[in-house]
Structure formats: structure tokens, C-alpha cells
Amino acid sequence: MKLHQLSVFLENKPGRLSEPCVALADAGINILTLSLADTQQFGILRLIVRDWQKARDVLEKAGCVVKVTEVVAIEVADQPGGLATVLKALESESVNIEYMYAFTFRSEDKAVLVFRFDDPDAAVAKLQDRKLNVLSPVELYELVEQ
Amino acid sequence: MTDFPFENRIWDSAETAPRAELERLQLDRLRGLVSRLADVPFYKNAFAEAGTSPEDIRSLDDLRRLPMTTKDDLREHYPLGFLAVGRDKLARIHGSSGTTGKPTFVAYTAADLELWANLCARFLVAGGLRPEHTAQIAFGYGLFTGGFGLHYGVEKVGAAIVPAAAGNTQRQLTLMCDLQTDVLVCTPSYALTIAEAAAAAGLEPRDLPPRFGHFGAEPWTEDMRREIESRLGLLAFNNYGLSEVIGPGVSGECALRDGMHVQEDHFLIECLDPDTLEPVAEGEQGELVITTLTKEAFPVLRYRTRDIARLDRSPCPCGRTTARMSRVVGRTDDMLIIRGVNVFPSQIEEALLHVEGTAPHYMIEVDRPGTLDVATVRVEVREQDFSDKMSQMQALRDRIDREIQSITGIRMSVELIEPQTLERFVGKAKRVIDHRVTDSS
Amino acid sequence: MTEQWNDSPGGFHPASTPDYLPAAQLRDLQLRRLQGVLRLAHDNVEPYRAKLAEAGIGPDDVKSLDDVARLPFTVKEDLRDAYPFGLFARPIGEVVRLHASSGTTGKPTVVAYTQEDLKVWSEVMVRSFAACGCHRGDVIQNAYGYGLFTGGLGAHYGAEALGATVIPISGGNTERQIMVMKDFGVTVICCTPSYLLHIIERASEMGVDIRELPLKAGVFGAEPWSEPMRVRIEAAGNIKAYDIYGLSEIIGPGVGIECEYQAGLHIFEDHFLVEIIDPETGDPLPDGQEGELVLTTLSKRAMPMIRYRTRDITQVVPSPCPCGRTIRRIKRITRRSDDMFIIRGVNVFPSQVETALLAVEGTLPHYQIVLTREHDLDQMEVQVEVTPEVFSDEVRGLEQFRAQLSHALENTLGLRCKVSLVEPNTIERSMGKAKRVMDKRKLE
Predict the structure, then answer these.
(1) Which domain covers residue C404, as residue numbers?
(2) What's the CA gap between A130 and A126, in Å, rounded?
(3) Residue pLDDT, tens place only, C349-406
(4) Which of B93, B178, B409 sits opposite C184 (nearest CB)?
(5) Fewest 10 Å CB contacts: which of B80, B107, B202, C108?
(6) Is residue C3, in this structure, part of any structural domain at all?
(7) To which H or E segment does residue C18 belong?
(8) CATH of residue C352
(9) Low-confidence ranges of chain B (pLDDT < 50)
(10) ipTM surpasses 0.85
(11) pLDDT at residue B160 in the model
(12) What is the pLDDT of residue B138?
């Protein structure tokens, strides 16, 4: 139930973000979602794509440092309290969230939350216990690309 | 017969002068001091107000009729309003941190420097230093008196100095082992940091060359002494001093390490109740008040140290006839000592004021997780400080960080926290949480 | 000559007497001192004994100063090889001070002084201050860093021996430097020339005009500077700016200094023997020709140096100085014959940076050192390419890695530098010897 996310190291300089994006576009790879974490000196671009292996090869060929990490996507209702429900489920458990980001798509009334946990397997188990909708890769791709 | 852990050597015969002789000398010197001070405007006024004149000093008990001096007095006469000699006589100027950005400065004539070196030589020799030794001084040099006091003391004894200064623990360890240093001089907490680095490098206490350690500039405990001694494989000695009085050299331990011998031929020491300013009963805790008897450039009369300790006037088997003071067990003000540096909470407030225009809510937390003091300043983020760009928030944090370092001289870790998370106080805010344990032994 | 009670400040300083020795006497003094130093080194220092034997020269074979050219050189690596005590010529019991400078790799270079050596050091520093017109009434703010670095304590002891009021403020905390300068009527400052420019700039931001303070002279050293910088400093500070030269292997600061004419640095030749050699062949070069400065200590006892190759490029000024000093001058040092560079007065070898990076990463990453000068403060940036091995997808992880690098560099170099993580393959690769240092500083 885990997804592969690609992280790319970027210097915090003008124009740096376009390089990996152009490389992926040239290879015909569609970015399902992305998030950017920045500091004063550098940034980390996090991407989810359908064919992560191909995307990794493309990025590495373009000279990027790429890391593949496992993240967990959860579908929630796009309404007040959607995120809170998930956080509440995790609160009592000893699961640490390293970071997270969220996105909505099309006109659906759903939102997707992407989490990076210190222990993704344990987190998935706990989320499923609470009957939360943890998305498999295929489910996510279908949701986003339908 | 008393068992000494090593040869009980005395550097200066004045340390063992018979009590009656010592007290005669003190009285003579006190009279001389009071007449010298009559030319210093601050004391001139204070004497006039109190109606005292030098002729009134007939016995040492008359000291109690003389006015006191506080740190605020020194600050109000910034930079050198307390000078008792012409500026052309000054050989050295040192400074200590003030409660605000302006530090307090003190000055020395060539004779004062000679005296200072001799006073440090006394306790260094009492604590094992010999001319054939090599001493590693891991105190910061500079305006701070600790480094220079010990440096010139070691030089006076004739031992070799490695002026390592503070910091770069790895290199301290390299120098210690490669240069076979016999004596380590630093703050007690830095001694533990070196011990930790030694252990991490796989060195046993017996592999470490120093046999004696002279530690000061911050409060420490008997527990810490035991820990330092077992982890560094040396004998640890405590010494005491403050720049307003002279720097290190006011007192130090002898081979028996049962209290620090106050160098009474040069300093009169009183132990007073900080509220009533009356002497405490013999052996009770009180605030130390010190008078410099011989300093030329910057003499002080009854200086309130704000340090709390006990005095023991019983004779010591080492032969020194001077009173002994206990470790400093507390302060009567809010000054903190972090890694050997004096810090006042008002300095942090000043730093925040510089960076942010107005001071936000903040809290200083001091802890000693391993061996080194760690100070954390938590600052509530206000709407006007908040930016959605992480880089800007980091830049804000860095600016506060730099400003605190510039004002206090030490690095603290700065954390930006959410608004309304710090406890609010009615009246005087509690700005400091000190997690470090100090026992009162 | 020592100062007497009725010597009024200013004018000729009695301590400067040896600066004016007639040439013949000076050369004779040098020869006899050199012979003594050779004997001391030969009898007490194994590496010197071996080198002399290899060169086929006995300790008594030096009959004239020209024979110096036959003596073997000493290089920085010799100090490293003999670390820590191998070059000491006196027993450790006679040593009263040890200093250390950064070596080319992790290990420091150690130098030692006897009580007499410290006196010589103070003496040459007093003569240095005197050459700059300083005397016992001056208030000297010593902003060189104190500690193992010889600059701080060297200037301190000299200023104290001069009889001046010493403010041992050490480096850093520019606002406090300015406050002290203003509030204590400082007349002389000792620091790196770039730091004084930084002080002047900061002072004007604080509304303090250095030109209106009693400050009259600056004794500037520990880094290369230039005539345009001098012009700037003298105009912006309304002071005279003097260049001082020294290195810890020889004694520390006080090997040479400019006089009021500021046309070259007088070397205290009664204590230090000067040669200029071709750095490639090692052959001596005549006065007026540029080459590497080689120094021999003539009086130091704890650790004599014979023909020490300083790696500093300069020349001996062939003409006599109008100040009347007979001790010769060298020109300002502008470059070196090795890859060492100086940041805020601290000597750095690129090999030290490699040692630190290697210690953290295990393998040497592609890196580049970029030197800039912003607001007259040197900045050293080490750019390190991120490799897949060290990349973390968490900001915290990368920040931690950067802090580790920064910590290791600070420990090895003794100074703080900026570490930037850069994308792979962004640092220029070159054929053969990589260009590791980009020095963008302009000494103006």
C-alpha cells in the first residue's frame, strides 16, 4: 500500500526547478503531484509519478541526485476535518510524521494526503485498522489520471 | 600527621603569616586604601555621606562602617570612573559582561599585574603546579580575566604554557597527549567535555597525561569533581575570583581541598546576610563582600559579589593561616553562568530588541545534557515576524542567533515557537529555567 | 639600549638601537650568532645533525655569511616529521611556551620558546611598535586572536613590554571593538588590515567616525594586503597603516615591520638572517630580485630554524632606507610559492579541507573552495557536491549533514566557513590538477 516518491536535490537558485521538470516532460512523464521544501541554501523537490523507475533513470541521466522513498497516500473527503480525522487516528499511536503534503484533483470532492512516516508499514496497518482509505499505487494513479 | 596527597608546597611565605601579624597588615593596608579612595569621586561622596574619614579606621571591625560597592555603581561610572591612578599608569584593561550591552571594565597597573600573577601562582603551586610542568590553558583569552590570570600565574611559577584557549576539543586532546601536558586549566564543564572526547577516542583515564586540573569560572559540585577526577585521572582543584576584584586569584584550594584559601593579605572578605547586610553566624551561608587591600588601579571597597558561600576561619593543617571559603552555592541576582561566561537575562532581551524592534515573549532554558551547558532561547513568533517562506524564518532565527552571540559572547540555540505557548506571569516574569543540578556541598 | 625613566615618549626609541648598527658590525654579529646556532642545532637536534652530515658540512665549517648557501634547507614538512619535540634544541624543562599553527594535514605544527626566546620576541615586537611611532603612553587595542596562534600573544607581550596600556580584546564582536576604541581613547590597533576596514564600515553605520577618534596607527599583519588598501585605510581612519611580518616557525609577529617611510619591511637582522632564493632551484638570488624568502633564526634557543623556507615571495630592497635603519628591508609579501591561502588571518591549506571532508564522507567528494571578501570580511565557502550516498529526502537530514561538514571543517581549520551543498557535476572538472580554490578577493 506504499507509494514510491522521488526526491531530487536542488540548489536554491533561480531556474533550478525547471531542469528536472523539463527532463521529465521531454521523456513524456507526467508528474501526478509534487511538493517543494526549501531552506536558505537548498531545496528538496518531491515527486510522484506513475513509472517511478523510468523517471528515476531520466532524472539521474539529467544529472540529478535522486532518492526513492516510500510514502503513504490517504484519500479523505475534501471538507473541514478531513486531515484532522487522519491525524487523530495516528495521535495515540507511536508513529512519527516526518513530513506531509496534500492535493486535490479534478472536481472530485476528495483530497489526497501524502505522508512520510518513520515506520510506513506500522502506519499503514494502523490507518487501515481505523478504516481509513489508504490508496494503493494503482488506485492513486487511477484517481488522478482518470 | 596530616596525609597530603602530594607535597604541600607553599609559594609565598605570606600565606602562612601568623594571624595577628596578618591582621595588623590588613589594618595597615585598609587604612592606606581608605585614604587612596578618598581621591576617587564615588568614594569621596560615599565617605562624605556616611561621615567617615580615614582616621576613623581603628580596627578591622570598623570596616563595617564603610560604604559598599555594587555592580550598578561600577556601571554608572563607565568606563573607568573608579580609577584611583592616572590613565598613563594603566598596563592592562579587562572587561566582564554587564547586565546590558555595556560590559564592566577593570584596569591594572604593572604592579597590579605582578600581584595578580603572584596570587595565581600561589594557588597553582598549592594545587600541584611545578616549574618543570607543562600547563594547558583551555580558557578563553581576551577581555575575560580567566585566561590571562592563569596564564601569567603559570608563567610566574616557571612552567611551560600551551595557550590552547577554549574550544576545538579534538585539538585539545591531541595537544594534551602529544605535548604531555601535566596540568589542565579550564572550566569544570569543559573538563568533562574533554573527558567525553577522550573516552570516545578510546583513551583510558590513565592514558591522559594531566595529573592536576585547575577549574573555575563557573559553579560546580563535589559530584562533578569526583566525575572529572575519575574520567580524566587527575586531581581537580577549585579556585575563585571575579574580574571586579582582580580575576582568578581571590582564593584557591590547597592540597587538602577542604575549602578555598582566601588570600587575605590582599583581600578582606565578609560573609553577610544579603537582606540585612549584617554578618552571618560563623560557618553560615551568606553573600561574599570583598575589599581589595592592595590593588592600585581599580580598588574596590566592600564589593558585593552576589555570590553565596560560607567562610571557615578554623586553621588548616596545610599551614596557611587564611580563612577558607566554600564553593559558591548560589547567587543573589539572576545572573547565569553558561560555559564559564556570565550571562544576564536582560542581555537576551536586549538582543531580541535589536533584531525585532520590540521584545517578544521568550524563555531561556539552560541544561547540561552531557557535560556541556546548552542554553536554548525560545522565542514566540508574532504575526509581524511570521513569513510563509521557510528561508525567511531561518534568516530571522539566524539574526537572533548572531545578535545573542554578539551581546553575550556565547552561542545559544534559538527556537521559534508558536505564539501563546509560553506561560504568562503576572508581575515579574520568570525568564529562566535552569535544569542543571547543583548540590550545596 | 633599554628605556630610562627620563626618556620622554616619541622620537627615537632606545629599544630601536640595534636597528641602526653599522653594517660591518651587524654582519659580524650575524656570523657569530649563526655559528652558535649551528653548534646548538647540531649538538641537540638529531634531524639537523643528519641533514648537516648529508650535506657534508660540520657545525664549524661556516666561516663567512656566504657559507650559509651551503647549509641544508628546513621546510614545513620537517616540522611535521619531527612532531612534536623532534626539533627542540633545549630540554622541555627549559621550555616555557608552546604555540601551534595548522599543519598541511590534521596534525598541528608545534613551536617552542624558552624564557630567553620570549624576551627576544618581546624585544622585536617593542622595536616593531617603536618603528611605527608607538611608545609607553599609547593605548593599544589588540584585536588579533589569542591562543595557539602567535599573533595575539606576540603583539600582547610586545605592547606590554613597550609599557603601553594593553586592551586584550581579541578578535570578533565588532561593535564592542568600536565601543572600546571610542570609550578608552585607543591610539593604536593591532589586527588584520581587512578587519580594520570592516571596523571602519561598521563604525560609520553606528554613527562613529573613526577619523575623529584618537586612533593614530594600525599594526596590520597576518594576511596579504596592498597599497590601494593602505590608501583606503589611512584615508578612512585618518591613521598611519603599517605592515608587520612574521610567522610562527621563526618566532611569530615581529620578524619585520615598516618604518615611518612605509617602503618595505625592515627585518630585525640581528635576530633573523635573510636570504632570497629561486624557489625552483634553491639558488640564492641577489638583492632586488624576486624569489622565496628564506629565514634563519640567530638567537632562538628552544627551536632554532636553519634556512627555513617561508614560501613567501618577495625581494630584498637594494637601497638603504631614508629612516637611517641599517637593517635591510623586504618588499610587501603578495603571493606564495605553495597553495596556502589566508582567511581572516588564519592560514589554510586545501589539503586540510580535504582531510575534513574525507573524515565525514569516507570518500573525497567533488568540492571547491570559494574565497570572497564582503564588507571587508573574508568569507570562505566550501561547495560540496551532493552524492546519492549522502542525499536525504528530509530537510533535516541534509541540514544535519551540512552541519557535520561544517563542524569537521571548523575543527580542522580553526575557523568557521560556509558549507554549501551543490548539485552533482556543477563544479568544473579540469584536466590534471583540479583547481580547488577560487580566490575572488580583490585586495583593494
Answers:
(1) 342-439
(2) 6
(3) 998 898 899 889 888 888 999 999 988 889 999 999 998 888 888 888 898 999 999 9
(4) B93
(5) B202
(6) no
(7) none
(8) 3.30.300.30
(9) 439-441
(10) yes
(11) 98
(12) 96
Asked if B175 is an interface residue toward chain C (Cβ–Cβ < 8 A), one would say: yes
Find the residue in A nearest to B390 (Cα): A39
| Max CA distance (Å), chain A | 45
C398 touches chain A (CB under 8 A): yes
C7 domain-assigned = no
- CATH code of the domain covering residue C174: 3.40.50.12780
Q: How many Cβ atoms from other residues are within 10 Å of residue C17's Cβ?
A: 12
Tell me the torsion sign for CA atoms C230, C233, C236, C237.
Answer: negative
Residue C291 has which C-alpha cell?
Answer: 624569489
Cis peptide bond prior to C320, omega within 30° of 0: no
Distance CA C225, CA C217 (A): 16
Contact A39 B389 (CB under 8 A): no
Give Cα B296 to chain centroid, integer Å. Answer: 21
**CB–CB of C166 and B155 under 8 A?**
no
Same domain (yes/no): C332, C297:
yes
What pLDDT does A90 receive? Answer: 80
Contact B394 A12 (CB under 8 A): no
A38 reaches B (C-beta below 8 A): yes
Q: Which three cell numbers stand for residue C377?
A: 570580511
The three three-digit cell numbers of residue C190, written as one number: 593591532
Instruction: Count contacts between A and C (CB, < 8 Å).
Output: 53
Looking at the fold, whether A19 and A43 belong to one and the same domain comes out as yes
Contact across the interface for C147 and B163, Cβ inside 8 Å: yes
Chains linked to C by 3 or more Cβ pairs within 8 Å: A, B
List, in order, residues 6 or more apart from C19 with CB less than 8 Å away: C127, C131, C266, C268, C325, C326, C327
**Cα separation of B422 and B431, whole Å?**
10
Asked if the Cβ–Cβ distance from A99 to C422 is below 8 Å, we say: no
pLDDT tens sequence across B363-386: 999 998 877 889 999 988 877 777
Contact criterion met (CB below 8 Å) for B29 and B294: yes
Q: Do C391 and A9 touch (CB under 8 A)?
A: yes
Single out the residue in C338, C355, C371 at which a domain terminates: C338
User: What domains sit in chain B, N to C, each tagged with a CATH number?
Assistant: 13-332 (3.40.50.12780), 338-434 (3.30.300.30)
CA–CA separation, C121 and C98 (whole Å)? 13
The chains in contact with chain A, meaning 3 or more Cβ pairs closer than 8 Å, are B, C
Task: Inspect the interface and report whether the beta carbons of B92 and C160 lie closer than 8 Å.
Answer: yes
